[in-house]
Amino acid sequence: MFVHRKNLLAGVVRLSRYSEYYGSIIFCTGLGLAVSQTKRPLLIAGILIANLLAVSFSFAFNDIMDADEDALDSAKAARNPVSASLISAGIANLVSIAAAVSSLTVYAFLGLKPFIFGVATIIVAFLYSWRVTRLKSRPIVDILAHSLHLGPFQVLAAIYLGSVVNSSLTLRLAFFVFLLSALAALNNEIRDYDIDRRTKLRNTLSILNLYRLGSIVQYLWLVPVILIILSLIDHIESIGQGLIVCTIILAVIIYALSPPTRRREIFFYRYSQILGTIFGFIFILFS
Predict the structure, then answer these.
(1) pLDDT in tens, 236-252
(2) What is the four-CA torsion angle of 55, 280, 110, 150, rounded to 10 degrees?
(3) pTM (2 decimals)?
């Protein structure tokens, strides 16, 4: 019984795929909190929890819908807990629904506007992966849907916690985060190019010859990140600005000292989430 429960817990944790986005969402939430100047600990904790739960629903539901196709690829089958039989599709659906309902409940306590962006996140995430609509299989639309519900909506939910909103800055930051999310979506399609072709998934990469961009996509994300930091720098205290500079220098050193085979991971996987977390908490603590 203990072993069974342990495997179930491992399946639930794997289903959340938290390691792929926790830093990105803390970054986006911190960005919004810096603009809204929200300082109440309960609101900060609430919006972080709501945003993370909403995105966990998106990733979990996507794995549930893709389980059969992921089973055709050994790497994706091992990553997808439903394909790997760590968790049944029925329990996975219950877990994903619980994440969605929990996130919307927290959003509701945070106010009408954060709740609206929370609902938008859940709806687009559902339509993105649901087999009937499956926006992820519609060229161009796939990038647009991904780039809206994974990044900008979390930024906007945090910004609209505040009573006064700087519309110009809000639009700029939302657009830059949209570009950042679009590059992440393109990177994922490049990563999954072979299995997507075998399963006949029609996405943006299937109609546009962008596969060769794989070698430079890992650098292009620096552009929106630099624009985000420059747009927000005046809202950050001096000590926070110093920490941002130190973090950037540290990231450059780590990248330079890393073997070439691991440099891509620094930009898009494990280390990028750590970097996003650091930036996010700098935004929260020193804005």
Answers:
(1) 999 999 999 999 898 88
(2) -30
(3) 0.91
